[in-house]
Design brief:
- The complex is a heterodimer of chains A (589) and B (346).
- Chain A is mainly α and 589 residues long.
- In chain A, the strands form four sheets. A two-stranded antiparallel ribbon of chain A has the order 1-4.
- Chain A has two domains: 323 residues, Cytochrome Bc1 Complex, Chain C (Up-down Bundle); 163 residues, no CATH class.
- Chain A has 21 helices and eight strands.
- The longest helix of chain B has 31 residues.
- Chain B contains seven helices and eleven strands.
- Chain B has a four-stranded antiparallel beta sheet with strand order 2-3-4-5. A four-stranded antiparallel beta sheet of chain B has the order 6-7-8-9, with no helix packed on it. A two-stranded antiparallel ribbon of chain B has the order 10-11.
- With 346 residues, chain B is α+β, with helices and mostly antiparallel strands.
- The chains are: A mainly alpha (589), B alpha+beta (346).
- Chains A and B meet through helix 6, helix 8, helix 9, strand 4 and helix 11 of A and helix 3, strand 1 and helix 7 of B.
- Strand 4 of chain A pairs antiparallel with strand 1 of chain B, so a sheet runs across the interface.
- Chain A: InterPro entries: Cyt_b/b6_N, Cytb/b6-like_sf, Di-haem_cyt_TM.
- Chain A: It catalyses: a quinol + 2 Fe(III)-[cytochrome c](out) = a quinone + 2 Fe(II)-[cytochrome c](out) + 2 H(+)(out).
- Chain A: Its main location: membrane.
- Chain A: Keywords: Cell membrane, Electron transport, Heme, Iron, Membrane, Metal-binding, Respiratory chain, Translocase, Transmembrane, Transmembrane helix, Transport.
Chain lengths: 589, 346
C-alpha cells in the first residue's frame, strides 16, 4: 500500500478502452484540425452555430449603413498608408521636392511631407484623395442612414440606445473630418484652425485658457498639428471603433428590422441567411465601396493643397469653405447678427458663441433625444421590429423634414458668398433673407410635409377600399362618366393594412383613495396635446367591416357597369395585366 | 413554406386582412437550367479574371509611370495617380460585382424565417442577477461599513485631480499676451512679402497695401532673422495691417483719433474681430473692407466700424506718423487687443 502512495503513476498515456488497438482517432482533415484547435480554446462552435445562418432581411435602404461601415474600413486602410510618410510637425523647412512652383518656399514639415506624399510617393496622391473622398462618403452615408432609420421608425424600442450610439458616431465622424483636413497645414486648413481659435475664445470664462492650452501658447504656436494628429489617428478612431463595434453588436442582438409584408410579423425576421448569401452580398459590397473610393481618388481631384500654398496667418483666399459637413454651423456663423455684450468687465461674444458652440450642441442633443421624446409623447412601451412608411407617421416625418430644412438653409447660408457671385445677388440681401428663412422655412416645411403625408394616407385608404385608378373612363347610358377602379392584389392590400392603429394618449383620470389625482399632472396637458398633434389627424386603416362594406359596394358598382361594356372585361386588358380571355371580375375573388 | 403560417397571428378586428404568409418560392432560371447556371459561373469567373488583369495593369503603371514631374498632365494631378486609381478601382469593383453576381445567380435564394426574442432577460435571469448582486454587496459589507465606502469614494474622486492638473502644462497662461503686438512706437510700416518701407509719396489715393511691422523682416548682426518659426507666425497673426490712402475729405476721424491718419492714409489691423481671418477684399468706391471668411464688412473711412455681417467690433486702428524721409511709422502699438473677442477682454 505504501508503495502505491509514494509512487506516482502517469495514467494519461494509458488507453481507456478495452479495444485491442491503440485509441488513436481517425486522421482528420486539415480544416478539421484547425477548427478543433480553435474551438478547444475559444469555444467558437457555440457562437458560430447561432450566427452563421442568422437571418438578415433584404431592402435597398438597409445598405446605407453598410456604406458608412465599409468607407470607415477604407479610411483605416488608406489612413495607415498616409501615416507612413506624413510628419506631424510645425517645424519650418524649405521645400525642395518635385513640385517646382513651391520649391524654395518655407513651410512646415507637415505641409512639406504632404507635398512629398502627393508628388514623390507613387500612389501617395491616390491614397490622399481616396482618404478624403472616403471621409466625405463616410459622413454623408451616416447622415442618409440616420434619415432612413428615423423616417421608418427603426429607432423605436428596443433600439433607442443604438440611435444614440449612431448620433455619437456622426458627431465624432464630423470632428474626425475636421481634425483630418486641418493636418496638412496649408493655407485653407490654417484658415480653419484660425477660425477654430476664435470659436474657442468666444467661450465664457474658459475660452482664452482653452485656446492657450490647445495651441500650447498663443495661436498658431508649434503644438496644434502634432496634437490634432494624435486626436485624429488615435483618440477619435479608437472611440469610433469601439462605438461601431457596439452599434453592430446591438444590431445583431436586436436582429434587423424589416418591412411588413406577407409572412413578416413583429415576432419573426424573414430574409437570407448570413452564410452564404448575406456574407457574400455584404462582402462584395465592401469591394464595391472600396473600388468606388479608389476610382474617385484616382479621377477626382480633392483638396489640392499645392494650389493653396503653406499657411500664413496674414493670408486668406476668397471663397474659403470648410468641408461640406462643417458648412451648416459656418452658415449659422455667417448670418448671426453681430451681438456682443460687455458687462462687469468681461465680454461675451454672442455672435460666435451662439452659432458655433451652443447651436451644434443643441442640435445634437435634440437629435439624440428624438426617440425618447417620441416615446414620451406616444406613451408607446411596445417593442417595434416592423418598419413604418414615412407617410404613416406624418408628424414624425414632418419633424425630420423641418430639421432637414433648417440644416439645408444653414448650409446654403454657409455658401452665401458663392451664391452671391454665381447668381449675381447682393450678399447682404441673401444674409437678411436667410436670417428669417432659417426660422420660417422649417415651420412651412413641417406643415406641408405633415399634410402631404396625410393625403398620401388618404390615397392609400382609397386604394384599399375602392381599388386603384385604372385610367379607364366609363360612360353610362345616361351620359355620366366615371373612372373604373379595380381591386389591388391581396398582397398589396395586406401591406397597406400591416400597421398599428395610432392611439392619442390621454391622461389617466384616476385618483387615489383621497381623491388626489395621480402624479405627473402638470405635464399631462402638454403631453396629450402633443399626442393629438402626433396622431389625431392621421388616417387609420379600415376595420374588417369597413373593408367588407367597401368591397361589397365595389362589387355592386361592377355589376352596374358590366352590361355597359358590350363584352366581359375588367379593364386589365388595357393595362397589360392580362388578355380579355383571362379577365376575372371582382366577384370571382 | 406552409409551416411559416404557423407563426402568423389570427385575423382580428385589428387586422382587417389576414397575413397571407410568405409567398411561394419562385425558381430562378439558373436554378432550373444547368446551362444558364454554367453561364453565370463563367460570368463570375470572368469578372474575377478581369480583376486580376487590372491588378497587373496597376503594377505596370506603378513601375512605369513617374510621379512628381508630370503633375500638370491629366486633370492636373499626373498620369500615375489616374492610372493607379483606375486600375485599383476597377480591380476592386470587378471582385465586388463578381461576388454579388455569384450570390444573386448561384447561391441558394430561399428566404428563411427566424423567430425574434425580446431583448429583455427572463424573469428568472433578472431575479438571479438581483440575488447575486445582493449577495455580493452583502458579502462586501459595503452597506454595513459606510466609513470604508465613503472614504473609497472620496479618494477615487480625488484621483480626478492629478488627471486634470497634469494637463496644466499643455500651454502657458494667457497673461497679457493677447493685449500686445510687436508694434512699437516709431516702428516702420513695411510692405508685406518684400519688407520695403513705404513712402507716402508712393501711395496714390485708393491704394490698398498689405503691410507688416518692420521687425517681421529684421535681421541681427549675423544675418539671422530676429523673429523665426512659431514666434514669427504669432507676431504676424496679430501685427498684420492694411494701409489705405483715401481722399482726406472722405475720412471721418474717430474720437481722439484726429492725428492717427497721415494725408488720408489710415492703418487698421488686418485680423477680423469676428473669428480672426485676415481681411483682404477691398471695395474701392466705398472704402469698405470685406472679410472673405464670414463676410463681415468694415468701413475704413469711419474708424473701421462694422457696417455688415457677424462681427461685433470695429477693426483696431494703428496710429500713423511719418518720419523725416517720408516713410510711414507707427505712433504706438494698437490701443486694444486685435482679433477675435475673448471673455477677459472687457
Amino acid at each position: 500500500m505504501g508503495a502505491w502512495l509514494t509512487m506516482s503513476i502517469d495514467t494519461s498515456k494509458v488507453a481507456d478502452t478495452n479495444s485491442t488497438t491503440a485509441a488513436t482517432p481517425k486522421k482528420p482533415s486539415k480544416a478539421g484540425v484547425v477548427a478543433n484547435w480553435a474551438d478547444e480554446r475559444l469555444g467558437l462552435g457555440t457562437v458560430m452555430k447561432k450566427n452563421l445562418r442568422k437571418v438578415f432581411p433584404d431592402h435597398w435602404s438597409f445598405m446605407l449603413g453598410e456604406i458608412a461601415l465599409w468607407s470607415f474600413v477604407v479610411l483605416l486602410l488608406s489612413g495607415v498608408f498616409l501615416t507612413l510618410w506624413f510628419t506631424p510637425s510645425m517645424g519650418e523647412v524649405e521645400y525642395q521636392g518635385s513640385y517646382s512652383p513651391l520649391r524654395g518656399v518655407e513651410m512646415s514639415e507637415a505641409m512639406a511631407s504632404t507635398l512629398k506624399l502627393s508628388f514623390d510617393v507613387r500612389g501617395g496622391l491616390l491614397m490622399r484623395q481616396m482618404h478624403h473622398w472616403a471621409a466625405l462618403i463616410f459622413i454623408a452615408s451616416m447622415m442618409i442612414h440616420l434619415l432612413r432609420v428615423y423616417f421608418t421608425g427603426a429607432f423605436r424600442k428596443p433600439r433607442e440606445l443604438n440611435w444614440v450610439i449612431g448620433s455619437l458616431l456622426l458627431l465624432l465622424g464630423t470632428l474626425e473630418g475636421f481634425t483630418g483636413y486641418s493636418l496638412p497645414d496649408d493655407l485653407l486648413s490654417g484658415t480653419g484652425i484660425r477660425a477654430a481659435d476664435g470659436f474657442m475664445k468666444s467661450m465664457p470664462v474658459v475660452g482664452t485658457y482653452m485656446s492657450f492650452f490647445l495651441f500650447g501658447g498663443e495661436f498658431p504656436g508649434e503644438s496644434i498639428i502634432p496634437r490634432l494628429y494624435t486626436v485624429h489617428v488615435l483618440l477619435i478612431p479608437g472611440i469610433l471603433l469601439a462605438l461601431i463595434a457596439a452599434h453592430m453588436l446591438l444590431l445583431v442582438y436586436h436582429k434587423h428590422t424589416q418591412w411588413p409584408g406577407p409572412g413578416r410579423t413583429e415576432e419573426n425576421v424573414v430574409g437570407f441567411p448570413m452564410l452564404p448569401v448575406y456574407a457574400a452580398k455584404a462582402g462584395g459590397f465592401f469591394f464595391i465601396v472600396f473600388g468606388v473610393a479608389a476610382l474617385m481618388g484616382g479621377l477626382l481631384s480633392i483638396n489640392p493643397i499645392w494650389k493653396f500654398g503653406p499657411y500664413d496667418p496674414t493670408k486668406v483666399t476668397a471663397g474659403s469653405q470648410p468641408d461640406w459637413y462643417m458648412g451648416w454651423p459656418d452658415g449659422a456663423l455667417r448670418i448671426m447678427p453681430g451681438w456682443e455684450s460687455h458687462f462687469l468687465g468681461v465680454t461675451l461674444s454672442w455672435n460666435v458663441f451662439l452659432p458655433i458652440i451652443v447651436l451644434p450642441g443643441l442640435m445634437f442633443t435634440i437629435l439624440m433625444m428624438l426617440p425618447f421624446i417620441e416615446a414620451w409623447i406616444t406613451g408607446d412601451k411596445r417593442d417595434h421590429h416592423l418598419l413604418q412608411r414615412p407617410r404613416n407617421a406624418p408628424t414624425r416625418t414632418a419633424t425630420m423634414v423641418a430639421l432637414m430644412t433648417f440644416y439645408g438653409l444653414m448650409w446654403a447660408a454657409g455658401g452665401n458668398d458663392i451664391i452671391a457671385i454665381k447668381l449675381h445677388l447682393s450678399i447682404n440681401q441673401i444674409t437678411y433673407f436667410m436670417r428669417a428663412a432659417v426660422f420660417i422655412g422649417p415651420v412651412i416645411a413641417f406643415f406641408i410635409t405633415r399634410r402631404w403625408c396625410i393625403s398620401l394616407q388618404r390615397h392609400d385608404e382609397q386604394k384599399l377600399l375602392h381599388g386603384y385608378e385604372t385610367g379607364i373612363i366609363m360612360r353610362s347610358a345616361e351620359g355620366g362618366y366615371s373612372e373604373r377602379h379595380l381591386p389591388i392584389s391581396d398582397e398589396a392590400a395586406y401591406k397597406l393594412t400591416a400597421r398599428d392603429r395610432d392611439e392619442v394618449w390621454t391622461p389617466t383620470t384616476e385618483t387615489d383613495s383621497n381623491g388626489i389625482p395621480a402624479k405627473g399632472g402638470r405635464l399631462d396637458g402638454v403631453r396629450s396635446k402633443l399626442s393629438a398633434l402626433m396622431y389625431a389627424d392621421n388616417v387609420q386603416k379600415p376595420t374588417a367591416e369597413e373593408l367588407e362594406a367597401a368591397h361589397h359596394h365595389a362589387d355592386h358598382e361592377h355589376e352596374l357597369q358590366a352590361p355597359l361594356e358590350g363584352h366581359s372585361a375588367d379593364g386589365h386588358q388595357f393595362d397589360g395585366h392580362h388578355a380579355v380571355d383571362g379577365e376575372s371580375l371582382r366577384g370571382d375573388h | 413554406m406552409s409551416d411559416n403560417h404557423d407563426h402568423l397571428p389570427a385575423t382580428t378586428q385589428e387586422e382587417p386582412i389576414a397575413n397571407p404568409g410568405l409567398p411561394p418560392h419562385t425558381w430562378r432560371p439558373t436554378d432550373v437550367d444547368e446551362r444558364l447556371a454554367k453561364r453565370a459561373e463563367r460570368q463570375v469567373a470572368g469578372l474575377f479574371g478581369l480583376s486580376s488583369i487590372c491588378v497587373i495593369l496597376f503594377l505596370v503603371s506603378y513601375f512605369t509611370l513617374k510621379v512628381g514631374d508630370n503633375h500638370t498632365t491629366f486633370a492636373g494631378f499626373g498620369a500615375s495617380t489616374i492610372a493607379l486609381g483606375s486600375t485599383l478601382g476597377a480591380a476592386l469593383l470587378l471582385i465586388g460585382i463578381g461576388i454579388i453576381q455569384w450570390a444573386r445567380k448561384l447561391m441558394g435564394d430561399h428566404e428563411i424565417v427566424e423567430m425574434r426574442h425580446p431583448a429583455r432577460s427572463s424573469d428568472e435571469d433578472r431575479q438571479g442577477t438581483l440575488d447575486a448582486l445582493a449577495l455580493g454587496l452583502e458579502e462586501s459589507g459595503i452597506g454595513r461599513r459606510p466609513l470604508v465606502r465613503n472614504s473609497l469614494l472620496g479618494s477615487v474622486a480625488l484621483l480626478g485631480l492629478p488627471a486634470i492638473v497634469m494637463l496644466r502644462d499643455l500651454g502657458p497662461l494667457p497673461g497679457d499676451k493677447l493685449y500686445h503686438t510687436v508694434w512699437k512706437p516709431r516702428m516702420r510700416v513695411v510692405r508685406d512679402v518684400v519688407g520695403t518701407p513705404i513712402n507716402i509719396a508712393d501711395l496714390e489715393i485708393g491704394d490698398l497695401v498689405n503691410a507688416e511691422p518692420e521687425i517681421i523682416f529684421a535681421v541681427d548682426e549675423d544675418g539671422e532673422h530676429v523673429l523665426r518659426g512659431a514666434e514669427l507666425q504669432t507676431a504676424k497673426s496679430k501685427a498684420a495691417v492694411i494701409l489705405l490712402r483715401m481722399d482726406p475729405q472722405d475720412l471721418t476721424p474717430g474720437k481722439g483719433r484726429d492725428n492717427w491718419a497721415v494725408d488720408g492714409i489710415v492703418c487698421y489691423s488686418k485680423i477680423c474681430t469676428h473669428v480672426g481671418c485676415p481681411i483682404s477684399l477691398n471695395e474701392r468706391k466705398t472704402h469698405h473692407l470685406l472679410c472673405p471668411c464670414h463676410q463681415s464688412t468694415f468701413d475704413l473711412a469711419d474708424s473701421g466700424k462694422v457696417v455688415f455681417g457677424p462681427a461685433a467690433r470695429a477693426l483696431p486702428q494703428l496710429p500713423l506718423m511719418v518720419d523725416d524721409e517720408g516713410f510711414l511709422m507707427a505712433q504706438d502699438d494698437f490701443n486694444e487687443p486685435v482679433g477675435p473677442s475673448f471673455w477677459e477682454r472687457g
